[in-house]
Each structure stands twice: as structure tokens, then as C-alpha cells.
Amino acid sequence: MFFGSIPALVTPFSRGRVAQDTFREFVEWQIAEGSNALVPCGTTGEVATLTADEHREVIAAAVQVASARVPVIAGCGTYSTAASIERCRAASDLGADAALVVVPYYNKPSQAGLVAHFLAIADASPLPIVVYNVPSRTVADISVEALATIAKHEKIVAVKDATGNLARVTAQRLACGEDFTQLSGNDDMALGFSAMGGVGCISVTANVAPRLCSDFQKAMREGHWDEAVKLQDRLYPLHAALFTDASPAPAKYALSRVRPHFPTELRLPLVEASDASKRAVDAALEHAGLI
């Protein structure tokens, strides 16, 4: 169900509000450029600063524009199990195809707590669940053993692995089974991730370079590794540049360079990318042939 290049969509803001028209045009462009699925309301979408109504509006817009052409995986995770369940139900009501549920942050649950959290959500969710493991943000890191336990639940179908540990791909495949979908959460490691058995990437870079990211994933899927390596080299400086300041500030700046008039506005506590970050982005966009 989920494979290939999957942008973790930025949320455009204008004068403090979600720029709905811009977002809809952005989603349409992503699909036209070959993205294989969409993730609204993830970390890159500044979900932490969206109101409940905005959360629903963004998911609804993504679903409506996608119109079943590609799956929509809605960001639904919080550090509260009950709140995460409510978000999953709301996303289902809006027509999303799956829920991306991050490992709970801030409250630092044990492995037993993580298992209980995800199983409770899976029992209550109408949607299949993609577990999002990103210990650099959450502190908590769901272990291979705990992931294997929850992967037995029919609703828990995939992981977005942003641990930065490529050995996890093999360990998780052996523990969770070959049918359990593994998606990279790190653009710069997507080549190695796929070589070890992954099937795609939930990507920041795909916001800015959707066609190149789609071609990159397609090359790996079809076993054209020489082509994939060339695309990796073309995209790598951009992968790095988009994290030279707090994400998604560099990504929004990059979008303003490749899509004129795309708003760079962020919500506090995030602020505009630094001048040094902008210079790095400009150089990377030039290297990739995007400007």
C-alpha cells in the first residue's frame, strides 16, 4: 500500500493562517510530479502548532485533492494515547487511508508502555497505522523487540524509521516479517535503507524536488542502482541543506525558490531560516539543477 517517494508535506501559512489555496495547489503539484503517497500534518507540516480545526482542514484538503490517486497518511500521533485515538478517528472520518503515529514524546514511556500505547491505538483506530520512530525528537526509541510485538496486530502495518541506524532495517525485517513495510525517515540514508530491504521514504526533500525523489525511488524499485547512485549524488547536498536550520524553515525557503510566491512563514517557536542556511539551500538547489 505504501512505497516510493512520500513527501512529509509542509503546511503553508499566510498572515498566521493556513494558506488553503496554496496547500491545494502544492498537493496537486506533488501528485503530478510522481509522489507515491502524501503525509499531511507530520513534523515537517508543523503539526505541533496546528489547532484541532486546522489539523482536520489540512487532512481534508489533502484527501480531497488527492481524490484517491495516491494514499494519504495523516499525522495523528501525540504523547497522549487517548488524543492519538481521537485523531485517528477524525482522520478516518475525513477519508485518510492511514495514520502516522509517532512514538510518544516528552513523557518517556518504557518499552512496555510503548507496546500498550500502540496496541490501544490499533484496537481503536479505523485506519492502518504507520509507526513513526524518531528518537532524536522523542527521546523514546521503540526497540526491535517491541516493534515486532505490535507488528502482530493487523492494524499496525509499517514503520517510518528515522533512527539513523541502517542495521535496524534487517533486524526489523527478521523480527517483524517481510510483509511489514519499512519506510526511511532519513532522506540522506534512503539509498542504503532500500538496499537493505526498505521500500520507500517519507521525505522532507520531496517537498522541494518531488520528481527527482520519485525518480530516485523508482530507480531503486526497478533495480537500476547505478541511476539511483547518480540521483543520490545529485540530491545529497539538498538533503543536508534542508537541515542547516530548524526544519521546515529551510524547506519553506527552498520551496519559495522553486515555486515563486510560496510563503516562507512559520509559526513560533520556529523562525525563518538563517542567511547561512539560505546560502546552503541555494547552492544545493543549483547543484540539483532545480534553479
Per-chain topology:
Blueprint: E1 4-7, E2 13-14, E3 17-18, H1 20-32, H2 52-66, E4 73-75, H3 81-93, E5 98-102, H4 111-124, E6 129-133, H5 135-138, H6 144-150, E7 156-161, H7 167-176, E8 181-184, H8 190-195, E9 200-203, H9 210-221, H10 225-241, H11 249-258, H12 275-287
Parallel strand pairs: 1-9, 4-5, 5-6, 6-7, 7-8, 8-9
Antiparallel strand pairs: 2-3
Helix pairs in contact: 1-2, 3-4, 4-6, 6-7, 9-10, 10-12, 11-12
Give the key terms.
46% helix, TIM Barrel, two-stranded antiparallel ribbon, 7-stranded parallel sheet, 12% strand, 291 residues, alpha/beta, 12 helices, 9 strands, globular
Gross geometry: globular
Specify the helix fraction band: 40-55%
Secondary structure tally, helices: 12
Task: Compute the number of structural domains.
Answer: 1
With strands numbered from the N-terminus, the spatial order across the biggest sheet is 1-9-8-7-6-5-4
CATH architecture field: Alpha-Beta Barrel
- Kindly name the structural category: alpha/beta
In the CATH hierarchy, what is the superfamily? Aldolase class I
SSE string: EEEHHEHEHEHHEHEHEHHHH
Mean pLDDT equals 98
CATH class: Alpha Beta
